[in-house]
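Escalated from tier 1: NAP holo job.
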Amino acid sequence: MRIAVVGATGMLGQHVARHTLRAGHDLIALYRNPRLLNSLADLRCEARQADLNDGDSLRCGLRGADAVIHCAAYYPVLQNQSGKSWQQQRD
Ligand SMILES: NC(=O)c1ccc[n+]([C@@H]2O[C@H](COP(=O)([O-])OP(=O)(O)OC[C@H]3O[C@@H](n4cnc5c(N)ncnc54)[C@H](OP(=O)(O)O)[C@@H]3O)[C@@H](O)[C@H]2O)c1
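Tier 2 regenerated the structure:
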């Protein structure tokens, strides 16, 4: 399968990304901060930049994925600057 890991540069996401490859899947690694891309340097993956607050970048980032593993820190009680939670925006 082609699996997208959201938050692949995070602590949990890095482990999940590695397990995904070890299990024989193709990996799409979604990251937000390009300065953390070096954490993916040794992985055979397609790295795509996406932000949970930006639906277009998320849609592009997930294009072609058979499955998604969401490892990005996500706290629904937090509100972004527009006053909408990430949950509301994503929906
Ligand atoms: N660590 C654990 O032991 C553990 C255990 C159980 C559950 N969890 C849960 O798993 C989730 C991840 O935890 P973690 O420890 O891996 O956190 P982390 O190391 O802080 O990683 C969070 C990841 O989410 C990304 N992210 C944050 N906001 C984003 C946004 N708006 N759009 C796209 N990506 C975004 C971060 O990217 P940037 O680097 O660009 O900010 C980072 O890659 C959390 O919800 C946590 O509660 C963690």
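The first strand starts at residue 2 and ends at 6.
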